[in-house]
Amino acid sequence: MNERILEEIGLTKGEIKVYLSLLTVGETTTGKIIEDAQISSGKIYEILDKLIHKGLVSFIMKNKTKYFSAASPHRILDFLHQKEALLKKKEQDLIACLPSLLALEKNTFKQYEIRLFQGFKGVETVIFEALDTLTKHDEVLGMGVHSKKAQKLNILWPKWHKERIKRKITCKLIFSEKGTPYYNLFMKMKYTDIRVITGLTPAAVTLMGASVIIFTPGVDPSCLLIKHPEIVQSFRTFFYTLWKQAKA
Asked: What are the pLDDT digits (tens) for 137-149?
């Protein structure tokens, strides 16, 4: 007898021993079951109750004594079908709950998120999506700003800031170089305050509302978007520490 099959459909080792013992011995009392199945007397009634509940064992009273007997092995197949029906019902219940579970996942995703975008189009997507989340009560903080990056990005950022200014969103920028045409362009922008720390960082970092975006320039630029309140706050604190040290 392959007992593993019985385990796989949901019977415990103790239940299997007792059921097989009853099949072999026939109708009998707990004493004989304990002896034949090698089950402790403290567990026998618990096991028998579970088997009765599963429809695999029944009993009758004779002279105030319970006599137990095993149900037909065909009943095991019925038990399996009942489990399948129960699992199907649970599957349907889970499907019904999925929308609310997905809503919870969506909310969590909004609060904690890390995404990597590569290429010019990826950078463009990130910064304009982030801009759409801002209001005039928010501010944009950027550090490590410089002109030594792909020309496409040098064209993209003024375009982005033009839209920011249209929405009257303030911005503070820490440049890593001074006096360049790129620097002079930003000096003329409304709602924009600029300071300089020469050679600040090779990667530009921008904070937009609940997001921090880390940029890597080059032929194939990329950016890392992080949405995590504690991380964003750490970068904000770091920015204002540098802001105090920077020169106007």
From this structure: 899 999 888 777 7
